[in-house]
Structures
1.
Amino acid sequence: MNDLHRLTIHEAHALLKDKKVSSVELTRSVLKNLEAVDSKVRACMRLTADTALESAAAADKAIARGKASVLTGVPMIIKDNMCTKGVTTTCGSKMLENFIPPYDAHVVEKLKAANAVIVAKANMDEFAMGSSTENSAFFTTHNPWKLDCVPGGSSGGSAASVAADETIYALGSDTGGSIRQPAGFCGVVGLKPTYGRVSRFGLVAFASSLDQIGPITKDVTDCAIVLNAIAGHDKRDSTTVPLGVPDYTRALTKDIRGLRVGVPREYLVEGMQPGVRKAIEAAIIQFEKLGAKVDRKVSLPNTRYGLAAYYILAPSEASANLARYDGVKYGYSYRDTTSMWEAMEKTRQFGFGAEVKRRIMLGTYALSAGYYDAYYLKAQKVRTLIRQDFDKAFDSCDVLVTPTSPTVAFKIGEKADDPVQMYLSDVCTLPINIAGVPGVSIPAGFADGLPVGLQFIGKHFGEETLLRAAHAYEQATPWHTMKPAIA
Amino acid sequence: MKHQCDTDILSGVVKYETVIGLEVHSQLLTVSKMYCSCSADYASTPPNTHVCPVCMGLPGVLPTINRRAVEFTVMTALALNCSIPEHAKFDRKNYPYPDLMKGYQISQYDKPMSVNGYLVIDIEGRKKKVGITRVHLEEDVAKLLHRTTPEGESYSLVDINRAGMPLMEIVSEPDMNSPEEARLYLVKLRSILQYLGVSTGNMEEGSFRCDANISIRPEGSKEFLGKVEVKNMNSFRAVYRALEFEEKRQREVLDTGGRITQETRGWVDEKGITVSQRSKEYAHDYRYFPEPDLPPLAFSREMVEQVRAALPELPEAKYDRFVSGYSLTPYDAGLLTDSRPLANYFEECVGLAGKSGGEKDIAKKAKTISNWLLGDFTRLLNSSNTRIEASNIKPWHLVEMFDLVDRGTLSGPLAKTVFEEMFSSGKTASAVVAERGLVQISDSGELAIIVDKVIADNDKAIADYRAGKEASLTFLIGQVMKASRGKANPAVVRKIIVDKLGGN
Ligand SMILES: [Zn+2]
């Protein structure tokens, strides 16, 4: 079989379990394709081919002993902001260029325990701040569908690697859309679980109250499979919720008859690309065909404050989270001085990129004496209002549907010098982080030859219904089966 | 009041009032650190051995709350008569320094675990309430060790063992009006923490630290004239001396027409002065905001009442019991109960000694024990810098010694020598007595020989005695004691002398 790398998790698992394919063969195929296309896509920060083949061999032994879980022996890629013991975790930053964590993130532990095969760490915007991977301190990832376009961000490397079949699936992290927006741009499935569903232990923090790890996969079934593996309470992350983890794959019944689907009008924003609007309209018709009850009157009025609140809250938390990078303990360290303060300041001056510094300054300002009430406190109040909007909407709806982004992937460099335009590409995704509810982006057609993402939003811990709706739509449409011709 | 003040000004003498508030940081005696599972027994291990990714502040780590530390703080707050709100939260206090591993300290800002308490101090019999503003929980920072190379280049080392130690902050109201009141407050606070078993209260080792705010103002006035924060005091005595110095310095500044600058001053113990600490490079704006990694704390009334019910006996109650139960003087009871280990030691001794005898007997034994503990024992502990718990002499050692005295085996005067030997060697009293042949001589025949010799050698004293000088008898007994090298039973000696010389 030549195209093993094109498989989904569930397809690969079926072959592995029946010993039609070994994990080593599968991993070799993935690595071979990765080596062939990554010089163009540039999704990977660091390849871990050697250890990947060792893990694959170990996985084959586990399979032979009949000890295979669905992720056993399946190759995957991890965003470079999740700590991997002994493997550099750069966060896309010069600051952590040589940082080798002495411990594994919770999700990495879980994947290793399942004998997953980690083939690479994925490129990303520096400290997950960005929507295009152009803020990576090292290089920009290219969209597999059109190489002169961005893959989205900040989990652009993860999404592009899945779209380009450089891996079977990937993990990303999402603070304001960083999983869903690149998944949408790359035509793959990306889920941001409910805040508290997946442990953040070992995820290098950007904005602690918004960050969440989630899967980026080739279809919704895989998304449910990965969520099964990574979700759950972790005593090292006090914000995880001690709720049992259902088998999310069992929710994928394809039956959404009577499901109440809301289309909040504020999300069909002005400036939305016509092709995106067309795809969303087509999707709405599709839901009705599937027997869902579509409600186009749903309103989330405080959405319009979402972007402003987000750019207070996230930078505020970031300003504290990134304070530890001072060159004293690890990472980049400016040494050409005899003054302690100068060393710390220069470390940060040269170690951080422009966007990171911009957000640290924003956050520092917003938290400063005399400004706290007007900015941070006000933003927290907006946060409450946005949550209440969602609570209210879910009184009458089971899921909400919106575009993932107002546009499809833009050209590399197009918005790089205009932070506000860049921020606007997350306008449909970041209210979901503010509310803490789950959201998933799935492919919903094309506009100008680039994938359009459809975002489903669920209730707190309502991933089952969310994935059921997304899956029903996916199975009724051909989009998830389409592959880019990388050239 | 105002009139009084004006008069003073007219007469050129302004009466000032001193106002002191104290901020105490106390490490808690938990098994693990505040936000990770590293051992809290950091001081006894080599640098950077009790560390993990969490307390090192590595990228990606998250804190978890040490429940025991929360419990200890609630216990302390209740013992200090504070109220516990239904909800409290942690906040990030942001400031850059190489000893602060995350670049922020997880502390508590506007919703601390407790507020509005008080502590009662006893100023020469007068009781005074000192308000407690709040008791909250935070984490300690790493230790910086400043070094210089042989070439004279200075550098610093970081020991992360201390980073993340649970630290309880107790803030008082500015209710103290003299260095002595401040000292009494600290003594009382420390003894409460020790009684609760939440802190060693050891200031020299840095597990109990105190910063002071001091200002003075014309008596009766409400306005403060420049608050000064004093730091770097490593003992109760240092706190007292620093405040005394600062009180005097501020008076002099005002008396000579100067103004008190609001500033932080450091105590220099060797010189006995405070010096202005150059203000940090930039003004402190800690940019507090709620810690997103930790859920808010909720305290149910049931939980609070359970903790309250389980509080151990506190110094005040013990003091009352010592006075009423053992008939100790208030002074002795105060000294004994200031320190929990001493009070416990005392009670253990009384328990061992009091197996027999009635109430009156208990009071007598308690008095003897108290005298020994507060006298020779304390003196030896202080001079050898030993903690009572670590001393060679255990309560049963002491009680055995009393027993020897009671039975007449050991003379009172010799007991002191024996005790010193016990203190340094850890031997029992009977072992020391036997080894050094210090058994008391009560045998009349044996003593009569010594008495005869003393009588023969002291004609003048004999004559004085016969002339009615009582003091001569004491002198003669002393001579016999000396001749017997302290072993003679003084009561028997006295009887023999009186019998031999006739009279009385
Ligand atoms: Zn630790």
2.
Amino acid sequence: MPFPSDGASIRPLNRFRAAEDGCYPETMSIHVLPTPLVNKIAAGEVVERPASIVKELVENALDAEAGRIEIAVEDGGRKAITVTDDGIGMSPDDLKLAFVAHATGKISDDEDLFAIETMGFRGEALASIAAVSHAHIRSRRRGAESGYEVSASGGEIAPPRPCAASAGTAVSIRDLFYNTPARRKFMRTTATEFAHISEQLARLALPHPRVAFRLTHNGRESANLPPADSTAERVADLFGRELADALLPIRPRGDGVSVAGLLAPPAAARSSSKWQYCFVNGRYIRDRLLSHALREAYRGRIDVQRWPVAFIFVEIDPADVDVNVHPTKIEVRFRNGNQVHGALLAALRETLNRANLSPTARLGDSPASSEGNDRGEPASETPPPSSHDAPSVEAVAHDDNHRNTLDDARRHSLRQALADFLKAAPPRQQRLDFSPHANQAGAPPAGTDATSPSTAAPGPSGRLPLGDLGAPAAGHGAGDAAAAIMQVHNSYIVAATDDGIIVVDQHALHERLLYNDLQRRLAESDGTKLTSQRLLIPETVTVAPAEADALNRRSELLDRLGIEVQAFGPRCLAVQRFCALLAERGVGAADFVREIAGTLAEDDTTNPEQMLQRVLAMMACKAAVKAGEPLSEDEMRDLLARRREADKAAACPHGRPTTLTLTLAELARQFGRS
Amino acid sequence: MKVIAQTAALQEALTLTGQLVAARTPKPVLQCVKLVAADGVLTVLATDLEAGVRYQLGAVQVEQDGEALIPAARLAGIVRESADEESLTIEADADACHVRGAGSHFKIFGYDPGEYPAVADFDGDGDCRIASDALAEMISKTLFATAKAHSHYAISGVLCEVSGKKLQLVATDGHRLAQAKGSLADAAGRDVTAIVPGKLMSLIQRVAADDGETLEMKVEENQVLVRTARAVLVSTLVQGNFPKYSEVIPKEATHKAKINTAQFEHRVRQAALLTNEESRGVRLAFGSDEVVLTSRTPEAGEAEVSCPATLDGEPLEIGFNPAFLTDALRVIDADEIAFEMSASNKPAVIKAGTGFLYVLMPVDLG
Ligand SMILES: Nc1ncnc2c1ncn2[C@@H]1O[C@H](COP(=O)(O)OP(=O)(O)OP(=O)(O)O)[C@@H](O)[C@H]1O
Ligand SMILES: [Mg+2]
């Protein structure tokens, strides 16, 4: 036996044997449960929600070699789910056993269990489902004259009867959980349950591109996936061309573990991990090892808050993977996890390195431009930090691929900012000027001794001359300490206050201020909406069906935000109006709507008010000045003035601080003056 | 290489070429300018791999032909701080570059000139010729409307259409669209349609504005070249499709107002004072003889200003982002504009002078 027979991995099998043979381990002194009750318990594990039923039924259809599978759902699957296939079908004898627990034509002994090639193997699903619903199967075997039907209700099975049927099988499940009120209560809204079904469809359809799928909800078509020649085509049908075209193919590797699939470039990363589709031998799974490999491969290429989009297909000898560790088979156990992790990581890295991730149009033939890429490195590699070069934070802030390093860079450059500030503004005692011209110069700026004339010239970005900062708040009276102000690294505002200095994160502060303003505007009265800019040329955006649904459901929220989208073909939306604040700040309407859609689809548990706050925070973040944006002196003063007005400005909506304060006392202590 | 160059001319050359020297780049050679001395001329080259410039300096004396690749910021700094010198001598050998003035000597370490990317030259005839100041004006009337960063349409550039004796520039960011029409010096060799990156347009503007002459333009497969008396500018074109702009220009209007440009701009700025960053919007109420502009910020206050206007049509209220109005009003030199609208949720059109047209979408004030 290839696996150590620890109890967990063969647990369902033990139960199976026990039930069928009618003999129980001697140590167990429990009585035999009536079969329907056993199944009801099992149903709790297999059938979590309508989407689980879709999964089990479609898997059965795939096991039956179907070429075309139709899924019809009513009321989010709560009322009815029908899955129709054109597979091999079932004989009357099969039908007799279909609803019987642990009756399966797919495996017959222990050995089989460790070399599973079909999706189903426990013979548990239909029995479990029938225990908690009204189930009906109509089927005709390929080549057979007539069809048969069988139904079961709460586990009571009626004998098969002949009926008219087309070749293949149609399984209908009605009134899910009708006999388990406690579980019925756990079902969510129609929209939520249907969103889960849509998601389930993607998980089933991706590894089977050649099989056609159609999903309808209350009679309306929600997805129609024609047979496709490649996974990429299937991705295009499911999630849109835009994403499919950006994908980088993973070159198949075959050393023991074969890894294939498609990766999206770092720029396409999403705010949720659900865009990571991992399949092992055609089965959608969640696995810590695999997601770890993904995170590892994208490390340094995307923000830590974002997740790469990936479609990964691992093929492995069925004997080397145990799929029987979780009732819904969503988890697996690898015999040699390290090998799988290593193979995947290598394949992912190779794919990302191979791709030129920063496509820049190039002028003519340039020896310089070929450099970076021949080494197989992305051209957008962060420049090595060096003391005299441009500060690394600026390079980083301008490169979306490197947003994850921003935090480090922020920290680094904050330290740098302080150092610069202290260099530029030496304590007053040091500013005694013994030059013979000191007195006749008279005018305040002449006192800017510490810096050379060249640094006193206004910088190209309108930065303040460093010299001004050293001057004793010239012309404003010594009390007006706020007059000393500068921007460092185009990211931080450093200003003197009455009792020390403050360092302000310009993005964090502006974000906070905007967030407050937006909140206040919407709180003004019940019906207030944000100013909305109409688009001259509507922007189109492709979203997943679940996302389109989510946008639909929250159309009222969008309206308050000044956003209007209209359906524009399948999965395609056109943005007609967009929040004026974002429009003016040059935020792409399509990108923003896609992001909101992702956030909304991901979680619909939050109440509308909380969701509004979340989206406002997103808006504020997008609209705020970025780290690396040069600010004029006026802009800086304006920001600082508003900082005093604004309550809660001490932290940005993400909870990061906006301001650091360094008191004179602290400075004195640091310099050993106390 | 050895040249003696007039300091002022050198500074001008370095300021212009400096526009294309990347401040932040992992490749040190891209932070350089390349100097090429040959045929009695010094050419300063710079490129950021998308756009490039070759600037010719006549005010030089070439002692020895050759090339040098020198960090641009260093050289520019030295030249700027040598303004008191009439001329500077630049001499480069394999090891370093020497800049000498009357009482100064700087030695700068450069790079191998062979490592610098090629910058295309303008060979042969152009597709069309146009007075440089006319082109500069057309650019200023359109460039502001380009998208700052846009992923969906190729509208981060200016659409440039040459046909017969006509040149037309169009720019849009999806909210508004600016169109300027002008005439060429003579009929174009062939018709051309190309999307020129905003960066090159502003570079042309810089070169053209102080250059009362005719410049030549040529579009090749994926690049555009411009030749002035002293410089050749080159850039890759923006790839992609420009939106079908003619479809979004309203063909007719039911409300037509005539307004004094300067007064109107002034009023819009005033009204904008009481808008808020998060809710930019000014309401325009057009009556038979005036337009009343109002704005309001809940926590700050309200503004109401008016401006004479003659309206042909029923009164109408419509909201706009004041910045989108002033952007256009600022570049119009005609005294009067025609403001044409059909509804508060339909695009409005500003027409001024000959050949300028601006379409802008209204805002819905919440
Ligand atoms: N669509 C179908 N076409 C043909 N046969 C089917 C179909 N659905 C179910 N069957 C038959 O009914 C049996 C029971 O299905 P069920 O889903 O309960 O168990 P399983 O697929 O064998 O195992 P698992 O519980 O792991 O899904 C299957 O083994 C198969 O023989
Ligand atoms: Mg099954």
3.
Amino acid sequence: MSIYQPEKECMDRDEIKKIQSEKLVWQVKRMYENVELFRQRMDAKGLKPEDIKGVEDLSKLPFSYKQDLRDYYPYGLFAVPLKDVVRIHASSGTTGKQIVVGYTRNDLKIWDECMARQLVAAGGSDESIVQVSYGYGLFTGGLGAHGGAEHIGATVVPTSSGNTQRQIQTMIDFKSTILCCTPSYALYLGETVEEMGVKDKLSLKAGVFGAEPWTEDMRKAIEDKLGIKAHDVYGLSEIMGPGVSYECECQKGMHINEDNFIAEIIDPDTGEVLPEGSTGELVFTTITKEAFPVIRYRTRDICSLNYERCECGRTFIRMNKPTGRTDDMLIIRGVNVFPSQIEEVLLRLGANVTPNYQIIVDRVNNSDTLEVQVEMSEDIFSDDVKSIEKIEKTIKDNLKSVLGLSAKVTLVEPKSIVRSEGKAKRVIDNRKL
Amino acid sequence: MFIKQISVFIENKLGKLSKLTDVLGKNDIDICALTIADTTDFGVLRMIVNDPDKAVEVIKETGMIVKCTDVIAVTVEDKPGGLTHTLETLENKGINVEYIYAFIGKNKEGATVVIKVDNPQEAVDALGPENNIELVDAESLYR
Ligand SMILES: [Zn+2]
């Protein structure tokens, strides 16, 4: 598999550190001058830009949070005048105001490059036909993947999300070779391809999927149903969008674009930087971003960093797939539960159970209840009630052993759980805490 | 000699059953027999209809899970012990009955009993006229 910018992606570690230090010093200085909130936080810590001489001083800097974007909505954290901003993206938080980010022309060029690295790592080239089934609009998915694909000279098919039957027809007729969308939508497309019996009519070779958490088992299911290699791409609009880190052919973690972003792993409770290899909250500093830069932004994603040299030849460190989020971790009867754990259980039952599911948490008589609704599928349905009950019991037993909690398992009719074509709503928490 | 039985997965929720019967009605499918095996959360609805292939098709279109299974049916005299002979015959051949239900057919004297076994061909071979048991064929049932 080729490497898009070997001079950057395979840089010497010392060289990476040198570049990061130079850019960090530059970023801190300009943010101190242009972003009021950052200046206040520096002053509160008694820090001056001159105190930051390189990456070794990173941990002295104050954190930034998603709430900042709400407090300074819409443009209050921009570090350039609006006339230099050429693009706005926004995402609606699950609660309250949407958050707004901006890009200069140079920011977009860097974003395109980062996504281009991902697409090339997935086998993309100017001969590829890239179907972008991420939603286009304020969400960064569509235009992010689009920019990267154009950047490598691929033929872009901007279908956006939705209208699944037509997506698949387009995929067949236009001979799309690379698919970009959310993993849950990829799985849905795969299931529909299976239903239509058209897998052998596809020209797809690879997929680049991100914007929501997914598991290794889900990857296998997508790869199998669509006949492709599925790559995991990570990003969030506060940092840039898809392409903050990207997965090479080894599929063993996502290379962080370290010439643009510095990653740290911290203890979410104390804020302390954790030793190499630890699992904790992922924190990013954008060192080249002009319009909307962040210093030590708390992603709320829980993962670990891998400093080992990758077999692909890239020297950028890798982040492991986030195992959960500090904010969507559910505490049920005092036990920490991540939706991803429940997903693993359902997928591990084999191809027989459709992975579409929903977690419903409630509180009855001062005690938490956990219900997992799982969609029935044709291959597990039997006219015999006993065999259906056996499946329910298997799921229940596995959940109990993985979570240490008993859950009520309910099999529901297919497609009865709302499957948004953007992000899947996996958890409904009805508790009023 | 086999009868096609339609089974449908149904959640125990208001309106789920009427949605199904509505679809069948709109497509002129007549239900000859119907039974539900249920738990607290879901049920399996089993039906004999006059046009099973069409029924499967239209139910599938609604997105519900449907399956077609071969069962056998026998006519049983409407008197005490009427079913015993049939069941004993199967039992003697070591054929295990998974479930059973009865209904009063249109032009029948007595009841029609639907029987689900592992291997319906075995059951057909085991029963039949030599045992004085009247197997019901599909045509007369769907009529
Ligand atoms: Zn690699």
4.
Amino acid sequence: MEKITKEVYLKWYEDMLFWRKFEDKLAAVYIQQKVRGFLHLYNGQEAVLAGSLHAMDLSKDKMITAYRNHVQPIGMGVDPKKVMAELYGKATGTSQGLGGSMHIFAPEQGFYGGHGIVGGQIPLGAGLAFADKYFKRNAVTLCYMGDGAVRQGSLHETFNMAMNWKLPVVFICENNGYAMGTSVERTANHTDIWKLGLGYEMPCGPVDGMNPVKVAEAVHEAVERARRGDGPTFLEMKTYRYRGHSMSDAQHYRTKDEVEEYKKIDPINQVKEILLEKQYATEEEIEEMDQRVKDLVKECEKFAEESPYPEKNVMYDTVYEQEDYPFLPHKL
Amino acid sequence: MRTIQFREAVAEAMSEEMRTDDSIYLMGEEVAEYNGAYKASKGMLDEFGAERVIDTPIAELGFAGIGVGSAMNGNRPIIEFMTFNFALVGIDQIINNAAKMRQMSGGQLNIPIVFRGPTASAGQLAATHSQAFESWFANCPGLKVVVPSNPYDAKGLLKTAIRDDDPVIFMESEQMYGDKGEVPEGEYTIPLGVADIKREGTDVTIVSFGKIIKEAYKAADELAEEGISCEIIDLRTVRPMDHDAILTSVKKTNRLVILEEAWPFGNVATEIVYQVQAQAFDYLDAPIQKINTADTPAPYSPVLLEEWLPNKNDVIKAVKKVMYK
Ligand SMILES: Cc1ncc(C[n+]2csc(CCOP(=O)(O)OP(=O)(O)O)c2C)c(N)n1
Ligand SMILES: [Mg+2]
């Protein structure tokens, strides 16, 4: 694995902070009804993404996840302005305003969505890996899912085939403790999600998902295994989301104290402490980064606000590859 | 009469039936401790306990099938899908097992089950979360399909659906759960397969069902000011369909507009069009008009969604077209 240098820590800090503030902004504009529908925020889980990216070869490796998906494409290199614009439903958005919050796509940067049906992306991730293996691209797919999604049949069917065919895929469960209001304890007779790999003899294990170093190490090992042709790995990232499931969630299923406990091991703070401790950055330099993050979030908001809405024909033009498809009329 | 919300009507129907029949249970994601993702089972865990109000993992194929299996062995399950979009994950159990079991066992095994949850669009939720599958389920022999549009109908129809000895698909809407309506305190039921004339009128028949019918009400109000009288028929049950109610009305008004929130290809409206032209061709004074969602997956952007979804203006245009106005 590439060494985790001062530069990496600096990047992690600024990236994770940006993701957090970017989504705080989304929450704010959601309340103003500029962004609608559901809004699932990544708040608290940033170390999983930061650590994973460190272990990837961004020139060819791929990523796919569920609907908690605003910041992953940014990490993969997508212009955050386009992600913000998508949530505003604007023509300049990643999907021209057609997908919205749950469906961000940016295949050019290796980000394959953005999937709203729980568990639906798990076979897709294996399918991406299938094609990479088929075409001998030596690339690896990172396929993410929630703790709720691992109970879907799609995971079990996919694990079996992915292992049998040694597909170059890393399955990563982001265990944030809850699927909406349902805690992990209430969905199975044991809570070690990583053990689901054992039945398929898939290499598997738990990872501290609040620490980007631990994440990077575990993902690196898994990515290398996949790249060698030795097949999939299943990692359970122990992480946490501070905010509700989506925007309307009274959160009666947990206590405020529990949330506060996790905030004590907040990934951004952990990295900030290292920056200061190891004297990788001074307080002033950190303030400079904070300011850059603020400015960039503002820029994204401005871009989204000022962008035009899509033309009506894109709703049709994007359905089929065929250009003159004869759609039925639906009204006069 | 007292006024309650749609979600309360749903909870009352389930609770009343569960009080009188121990074999009924409610199962689904977030139905128990969370009181329902949309609070349509509020208080039921407290009253009936965890053996009868059961939270599941996210595993639609599994719990739909467990529902069917238990119905083969004495239970009368109510299976909730958080929305019917997610029922697709479990649709094999509905179509291949629930709908087929009675016939292929030569009548030995009936499946008294209700699959319920919200259907169709609910704001800017985009392609995977805005689908209306009424016509898909209605296409399948062995199923009955119920789609109420107000709290009174929801309660009466759901009680009947639960008592029905065959599988019933019962479709609600996220956007209706907060709707208020008059619901009597006392016991009542509404039979399946019987449409309801929501407004009497003389000039044009509008057939609709589910939450989109509200656009027909708004259109009828505006048209009334112009002196056009609309008769609005709420199908309430899509399968079996109350063809008589539609035909009787069309024979009176001689004009028909159908409003359905669904893709336009081969939907509930096209079935009605076939029946009416076959049985009342000579009564029609104008070609039938149907209004649907656009022939595309639902878009996210507000400007596109507005174009995609039918509204009262579309109904007004269609009514005027069949009136040659
Ligand atoms: C097949 C399906 N069933 C139900 C839902 C509704 N739903 C959306 S998110 C969610 C919880 C998922 O939890 P988890 O997998 O832990 O992911 P997290 O939200 O914690 O990231 C549920 C039940 C859905 N979108 N798809
Ligand atoms: Mg979760």
